[in-house]
Design a protein that fits this description.
243 residues; elongated
Length: 243
């Protein structure tokens, strides 16, 4: 784990240098943005909606029994924005796009395509890593923001259907409880998670050696490692901003 983390930091620095020197092409970044976030948008929004609906089912009747149904909207909004939307969106993108990144680069490594890039005097780390890291850092927060809106609206619909909570009371509670600071932190989480997904999965794929079997094992390992790193990052961010 320590050695792998060191390699991740090394490749992150090389990718950063590749970006600031202007060698990364915009069309590659756009292509990776579509592959990482746009193609994962539907599943991310479905997960956000279902998660908010489940939370609303769990808390709405309990709040109604205690006479605190006016706080349903605020509770769902806080949970969605602080934790559920950034975390679940990142897990969905990691499971779908992260594994694809790892498999693609691992396949290039075992079929000597990376060596071919080197013969053309192109830095393979910068060429493969930087567009993916930049695309994930920019677009994952966008998906998180859309998922937060969908989740809050999902909670509104379920609350209205289960305890007939008036939408105006729900929205008022959301505005009273929610702060712009929570939104900024959630977007920051999305950017960090996006960078980790692209970096960890690309590093795992780049370090793959062997054949087709090793590509499959590397892809599985990338999914596990990216999840672990995201959870650790989530814990550290919560300590810094909420403790």
């Amino acid at each position: 784990m320590i050695s792998f983390f060191g390699k991740c930091m090394q490749y992150l620095w090389l990718s950063f240098v590749y970006l600031i020197t202007g060698r990364s092409r915009v069309k590659h970044v756009i292509a990776q943005a579509a592959s990482i976030s746009y193609d994962s948008l539907v599943i991310s929004l479905v997960i956000a909606f279902v998660s908010a609906a489940v939370i609303a089912i769990q808390v709405s009747k309990q709040f109604l029994m205690s006479g605190a149904e006016a706080y349903v909207g605020g509770s769902i909004a806080i949970v969605m924005i602080r934790e559920i939307a950034p975390g679940f969106v990142a897990l969905a993108i990691g499971a779908r796009a992260g594994t694809a990144i790892s498999a693609e680069i691992a396949n290039m490594q075992v079929t000597s395509q990376v060596d071919a890039i080197k013969t053309l005097k192109v830095d393979p780390v910068g060429y493969y890593f930087s567009p993916r890291i930049l695309a994930a850092a920019v677009t994952v927060p966008m998906v998180v923001l859309i998922a937060e809106v969908v989740g809050i609206l999902g909670g509104l619909l379920v609350s209205f259907a289960t305890i007939h909570l008036h939408p105006a009371r729900y929205i008022t509670s959301v505005w009273l409880w929610l702060s712009t600071r929570d939104i900024y932190i959630s977007l920051f989480k999305g950017a960090v998670f996006g960078i980790l997904i692209a970096l960890v999965c690309a590093t795992q794929g780049y370090e793959t050696r062997g054949g087709a079997k090793d590509v499959g094992e590397s892809t599985t390992r990338a999914a596990v490692l990216s999840t672990v790193y995201m959870l650790i990052a989530d814990f550290l961010i919560n300590i810094v901003f909420y403790l």
